[in-house]
Design goal:
The chain has a single domain, classed as Cytochrome P450 (Cytochrome p450, Orthogonal Bundle). A four-stranded mixed sheet has the order 1-2-7-4. The protein has a three-stranded antiparallel sheet with strand order 3-11-8. The protein has a two-stranded antiparallel sheet with strand order 5-6. It is globular, with a radius of gyration of 22 Å. A hairpin with a 2-residue loop joins β5 and β6. By secondary structure, it is α+β, with helices and mostly antiparallel strands. The longest helix is centred in the middle third of the chain and has 27 residues. Helix content is 49%, strand content 10%.
C-alpha cells in the first residue's frame, strides 16, 4: 500500500507581498515556491496549482460541485442559473443551445455588424484626437453586444449597464478578498436589481416580437417556446445576464491591451497594417480580415497570454484529494492562475516579450499543452470564445488600419480583482489617422 501523500505545508502569507496590494505579484511569488503550494489567506488555507498537467486535472476531471466557491456563491444572486453556474441535468441542453450559435462558423454572421460599429466609432475618435482607450472600447463592445447577441440597440441604457456592471464587479471583488459583508451584499443586490430592469425589458420586448432573427436572444426565446422543461422564463433572464456580464468587459480589456501594446510596438503595428492593406488591395472584405490576415488573430492571442482577462480560476476540493503528490484537504480553495501559467519561462521562452508569432502556423507545435487557458478548459470552457476572438481581431484590425495610436503617459497599472484583470483608471492615447488608409475602409 502506497504511503499517504504529504499534506501541504502552507506558505506564510506574511512573508510575501500583501495579496490585496498586488495580487499578480503575490501569486507569482507563491508559484515560485513550487507547482502545488499552500498559502494562508486570512484565516483560510488556499492552494495555488501551477503545474500544467495538474491544472488540466483540476479543470477537467474534478466534479461539478468543485465549482462552488465563495466567489460563485457571492455572484449567484446576480447570475442565477445561467451557463456560468448552471448544474446538471439542465446545464447540458442549455449549453448546446448557446454553443451551436457561437461556433467558429456561426459567429461569422456577426462580422459585418462589428465592422460597421467599429468604423463609426473610429471616425468619432479621429475627431477627438485623444481619448481613454479603455472607456471607448468598453462602449464599443457593449454596442456590439447589443446589436449582435441581443438584436437590440443598447443606446438608451448603455450608461446604466456600465455603472451596474462596475458596481457588481466591486462587490464580487470583495468576495474574492474575503471581505464580503452585509454592505457588499446590499451593493450587489442593488446592482442586480438595476440590471434586472434592463434585462427584463429586453426579454419582454423579444417575447412579444417575432423571434425569427439570428441574434442569440431570439434563439433563446425559441428554445423557451419549445416547451422543453430545461428552458424556463427565469432561465431566459439568467442567460441574458450571463451574456451581458461575460460578453462585454473581457473583450473590452483584451482589445485595450492589444492596441495599447501595439502603440509600444511600432514595428509589429506597421507590419500588421501592411498585411491588412495588402489584403484589402486583394479584394478581401473588411469583415473577413480576421480570417484572411492571421497576424491579427495572433496579436489577440498573444495579448490574451500576457493579459488574461480572467487571471485566476477557483475550485473547491469537495473531498480529500491527491494532486501532484500532495494531499489537499476537503474544503480547500484551489486557485489556478492563467496569468502565472502563461508567463512561466518553463513553458514560454522569454515570457515577458510580446511575440505574436508564437501562435503562427510554423511555431504552433511548440506551444505548451495545458499552459494556455485564457478561456478556461474542459467542458466549462467559455462558450463565447469564438465570438470574443472574432470581435477582438476585427476591432484590432480596423483600428490599426485607420489610426496610428500613440500611448500617453505611463503604461496602465493592472488590477487583479481575483475574477477579472483590468486597467486601474484611464488608458490615454493620442489618435492620428493613417495617411495611407484615410477613408479607404468604407
Amino acid at each position: 500500500m502506497l504511503p499517504a501523500p504529504p499534506r501541504l505545508d502552507p506558505v506564510v502569507a506574511a512573508a510575501l507581498p500583501p495579496y490585496a496590494g498586488d495580487p499578480l505579484r503575490f501569486l507569482t511569488q507563491v508559484a515560485a515556491e513550487g507547482d502545488v503550494v499552500g498559502y494562508r489567506f486570512g484565516e483560510e488555507e488556499r492552494v495555488l496549482v501551477s503545474d500544467p498537467a495538474a491544472v488540466h486535472e483540476v479543470l477537467t476531471a474534478w466534479p461539478e460541485e468543485s465549482r462552488w466557491t465563495p466567489i460563485t456563491r457571492a455572484a449567484a444572486p446576480m447570475l442565477g442559473d445561467g451557463l456560468i453556474l448552471a448544474v446538471a441535468p439542465n446545464w447540458r441542453p442549455r449549453r448546446l443551445v448557446v454553443q451551436r450559435e457561437l461556433t467558429y462558423r456561426a459567429v461569422r454572421r456577426f462580422a459585418e455588424t462589428i465592422v460597421g460599429n467599429t468604423e463609426r466609432t473610429v471616425r468619432g475618435w479621429l475627431a477627438e484626437e485623444r481619448l481613454d482607450l479603455q472607456a471607448a472600447l468598453g462602449r464599443l463592445t457593449l454596442v456590439n453586444l447589443g446589436d449582435t447577441v441581443f438584436g437590440s440597440d443598447f443606446d438608451d441604457f448603455t450608461d446604466t449597464l456600465l455603472q451596474t456592471l462596475r458596481a457588481s464587479q466591486v462587490a464580487i471583488d470583495a468576495a474574492v478578498a474575503g471581505r464580503f459583508d452585509a454592505g457588499e451584499r446590499a451593493a450587489l443586490d442593488r446592482a442586480t436589481a438595476e440590471l434586472d430592469v434592463v434585462v427584463q425589458r429586453l426579454v419582454a420586448q423579444r417575447l412579444v416580437e417575432p423571434t425569427t432573427g439570428e441574434d442569440l436572444l431570439a434563439v433563446l426565446v425559441r428554445a423557451l417556446e419549445s416547451g422543453d422543461p430545461a428552458f424556463s422564463r427565469s432561465w431566459l433572464r439568467d442567460e441574458a445576464v450571463m451574456l451581458i456580464t461575460a460578453g462585454h468587459e473581457t473583450t473590452a480589456f483584451t482589445t485595450t491591451m492589444a492596441l495599447h501594446t501595439l502603440a509600444h510596438e511600432p514595428d509589429t503595428a506597421a507590419r500588421l497594417r501592411t498585411e491588412l492593406v495588402d489584403a484589402l488591395d486583394r479584394g478581401v472584405a473588411p469583415a473577413q480580415l480576421a480570417d484572411e490576415v492571421p497576424l491579427t488573430r495572433h496579436v489577440v492571442q498573444e495579448t490574451l497570454r500576457l493579459f488574461p482577462p480572467l487571471p485566476a480560476l477557483h475550485r473547491t476540493a469537495v473531498a480529500d484529494v491527491e494532486l501532484d503528490g500532495h494531499l489537499i484537504e476537503a474544503g480547500t480553495l484551489v486557485v489556478v492562475s492563467p496569468y502565472v501559467l502563461q508567463r512561466d519561462p518553463r513553458s514560454w521562452p522569454v515570457p515577458e516579450r510580446f511575440d505574436p508569432d508564437r501562435f503562427s502556423e510554423g511555431r504552433r507545435r511548440e506551444l505548451p499543452r495545458h499552459a494556455y487557458l485564457p478561456f478556461g478548459a474542459g467542458s466549462r470552457i467559455c462558450a463565447g470564445n469564438h465570438f470574443a476572438l472574432l470581435e477582438a481581431a476585427l476591432i484590432v484590425a480596423l483600428v490599426t488600419l485607420e489610426t496610428d495610436l500613440e500611448a500617453v503617459g505611463h503604461p496602465p497599472r493592472l488590477v487583479d480583482s481575483g475574477t477579472a484583470l483590468r486597467a486601474d483608471g484611464p488608458v490615454p492615447v493620442r489618435v492620428r489617422a493613417t495617411a495611407s488608409r484615410e477613408g479607404a475602409v468604407a
